[in-house]
Amino acid sequence: MRSTPTERTREQLEAVAVAGLGTVSFVRSALEVVGRAVPFAAACVATIDPRTQLATGAHKVGTMADVAPAEDELWAFHEYVVDDLYDYRDLLERDGGVTTVHRETAGDPLRCLRYENFFHPTWAVTDELRAAATVDGQLWALLALFRDDGTRVRTFNEAEMDFLSSVSPVLARGLRACLVTSTVAALAPSGVVDATDGGADGDGGAGLGTGVLLVDLRGGVLSANAAAGARIAALGGGPVGRSELPMPVQSVVKAARRFGQGRRTWAPRVRVRTASGRWMVLSASPMAAHADGAAPAIAVTIEDAGAAEVLPLLVAAHGLTPREQDVVALVLGGSSTAEISARLHLSGWTVQDHLKSVFAKVGVRSRRELTAKVFTEEYVPRMGPGSTPGPSGFFG
Q1: I need a surface site. Which of 67, 218, 231, 370 has the fewest CB within 10 A?
Q2: Half-sphere exposure of 16 toward its Cβ, with a 13 Å CA cutoff?
Q3: Which domains are seen in the chain, by residue range?
């Protein structure tokens, strides 16, 4: 039986997801495939830290391909600060993890503040279709497709929403796989970075020190230490104080505003991989103004991520089940099969079955290769002139 056009499109997307591409190349290829089934004027894929559900980067094609950093700041403002009808995290509560502006506003898109004050006046957008790219219960990316005045059909229909819902897990698996891809060194344009990129940004792996910035509520830099400049550059940003902050910083700054307003129960924190493969952790917190007339500010810290931050994300990127992740954590800690069996209350045979599954997913054949892979991917890149491991034996 011949496959339908929709099935063929899904098969093509599956092939792209397992092709071992870097993030930028994968996004472009995937959106080219998606566009054959669901035409659009512009599209954006925002990568997400699955633990905190904060955006770590954005890749755009079409009429939005040359979005200025200031417009990324406006996007973050509308997603994290503005109390709108819905934002991308609300997709997790929508049927199929998908919705459109016209669906949310009952055909009156001007009810959506993001549409009225940003998308429509900036790009003449007529509709936006959003899909949450989730797999194994975790959100890895947001896919947004846009139509405008130049699109033949200006709104998205139910069939197109159903299609995006059906393929969004494929996009999530593909982006998750990019975390463990080693072929992205030449793919990141102009220092574009996010939680899935790797490559060479010239930081050399040596310790940069903890970057500290004090920013105003809009994200303008009030002060910064010397290390902040190097950190921002590694994240693809320009000179501190003379250019807009990169997307990961905008995310934590805007989320900190929400936290300060009592609309978020925990201070924002996000893991980001730079273009050199270096992992960093960004966090932000609102500061109390003690001087009369002092304007509110937000403190941002940027530092190297330690093993406790990176390894869970790396393990999840391989698609391991929670129990497989438990087994891997103990293997990396040097536990024997008998010790793992006792610790997890599993039979030795079950532990071995979990290990076989882990080896197949990670692409290794033994415990030694598994440990070596983690060492090669997450330890060696941190070694460099002047770098020294901490008490745990891990850099950062």
Answers
A1: 218
A2: 24
A3: 5-178 (3.30.450.40), 190-306 (3.30.450.20), 320-382 (1.10.10.10)
Give me the phi and psi of 103, to 5 degrees please: -70, -45
Of 159, 148, 198, the C-alpha closest to 314 is: 198
Q: Is 20 left (phi over 0), alpha (psi -120 to 50) or beta?
A: left
- Look at the block and give the residue holding tokens 């500010």: 297
DSSP element (H, E) containing 188: none
H-type alpha helices, the chain = 5-17, 23-37, 69-80, 101-104, 113-114, 120-123, 158-178, 226-234, 247-260, 307-317, 322-332, 337-344, 348-362, 367-378
- Contact between 85 and 112 under an 8 Å Cβ cutoff? The reply is yes
Rounded to the nearest 5°, which phi and psi values hold at 277? Answer: 95, 0
Contacts of 369 (CB under 8 A, 6+ apart): 359
- Greater pLDDT, 335 or 191: 335
Question: CA–CA separation, 282 vs 59, rounded Å?
Answer: 20
Phi and psi at residue 319, to the nearest 5° = 75, 30
Half-sphere CA count of 369, side-chain side, radius 13 A: 11
* Distance of alpha carbon 301 from alpha carbon 308, whole angstroms: 18
Low-confidence winner among 137-151, 154-168, 303-317, 329-343 (lowest mean pLDDT): 303-317
pLDDT digits (tens, 9 = 90+) for 79-111: 999 999 999 999 999 999 999 999 999 999 999
Percent of the chain scored above 70 by pLDDT?
Answer: 84
DSSP state of 244: P
Predicted confidence at residue 291, as pLDDT, reads: 57
Task: Identify the CA nearest to 395 among candidates 317, 278, 301.
Answer: 278
Whats the size of the chain, residue-wise? 396
pLDDT value, residue 92: 93
Helix (H, G, I), strand (E, B) or coil at 394: coil
Burial class (CB in 10 A: 0-12, 13-18, 19+), 105: middle
pLDDT of residue 290: 57
Closest to 144 in 3D by CA, of 215, 62, 73: 62
DSSP-assigned letter for residue 207: -
Amino acid at 182: S
